[in-house]
Amino acid sequence: MDGIKSVRMQTDRLEVRAATIEYIRSELEAPERLAALLEAHVEPGWPPGEYDRDAQEFFLDRLTEGGMSVAGWYVWYAIRRRNACQPSVLIGAGGYFGPPNEEGIVEIGFSVMPSWQGLGYATELVAVLVENAFSDLRIQKVIAHTTSENHASRRVLEKCGFSCVCRDRLSGGDRFEILSNENA
In Å, how far are 75, 94, 182, 183 from 51, measured between CA atoms? Predict the structure, then answer.
């Protein structure tokens, strides 16, 4: 079966939930509304890193244009699941820049709140996004871009099986790739 199959995924410590138009609108208007919708604490300073207002508006526009057919092909929220000692917390966002292109390539990106960095959450998020992408039979390759100075992102990508293949002349960043098992 082709296409994203789920709007919720789980890792050892995370619930990863696909963004909806309602989630992104609430995030842009009032993070406390997003917290209520996700049933998770949203820390001051949200959103993290490059997942800024421009990115949120871009993803909102893509979801609005594409409707349900593109659900799951854009932003996913990484929520550290509640446990006996701690409540659920929105710790980051990641996802795809859209459905796969004609060559079966999809690009991912990710950002984690500073207070949750260095704890393996980005690696869990990227691993589940890659696994989810390769569950779509059209996907042949997942790519990501980062700068040579962003050592943490590079380590996350490498831990998840990506290889640095070239410097992107347009962005000046490095392009990382991972092939599906059928193409490895």
Answer: 9, 8, 32, 31
